[in-house]
Amino acid sequence: MLKNAMSHLLAARRVRGPRPSVRAAGMVQLPVPPALSASLGCDAVGVPARYGFRLMSHLPRTGCVFADADRWWWIVPAGSDLDLDWPPQAAYAKGAFVPAVRPRLIHHPDSHTPYTPPIPLFLMVCQVTGVAPSWAPMGGERAVSAP
Asked: How is residue 136 annotated by DSSP?
């Protein structure tokens, strides 16, 4: 699993180039504050705004969180969708390109990293949405095969 995750992260790093941070076809890239180190790349996980405060209050550590009227977006390391079946109410956005209208930073982390740990976030999103956690997409291959 670690080898698979590392190859996924390295591939994402190789193909990443300069991307516009301004809207492109209704999308906007969430701007990570320049003082924070985002060396793992950035994706975002969005949930309906009604779950935002509950998630924030129950997570052990929270990175950058952006919000607009409809969704709250958590910055996670690139590839945090690997082997996780995010609930249908959650939106996973590669490269932190999100369908949002003027998202604003509502939480700046105390640490030097913009990331919210993806596993606790995944488990909390599953809990608040009433969905049982699934570690691999339905019908997809597992990262580690059984002996």
From this structure: S
Model confidence, pTM: 0.75
Give the whole-angstrom CA distance, residue 99 versus residue 80: 19
Q: Which two tokens stand for residue 26?
A: 């209704």
Unique residue bearing structure tokens 């990175």: 63
CA atoms of 82 and 77, how far apart (whole Å): 11
**Helices marked H in 36-136:** 52-58, 118-129
Which residue matches tokens 């019908």? 139
What letter would DSSP give residue 141?
P
Q: Of 10-24, 62-76, 85-99, give the lowest mean pLDDT range.
A: 10-24
- pLDDT tens for each residue of 39-89: 899 999 999 999 999 999 999 899 999 999 899 999 999 999 988 889 999
Spatial CA neighbour of 58 closest among 122, 132, 130, 131: 122
Q: For residues 37 and 122, give the distance between their C-alpha atoms in angstroms, rounded to a whole number.
A: 22
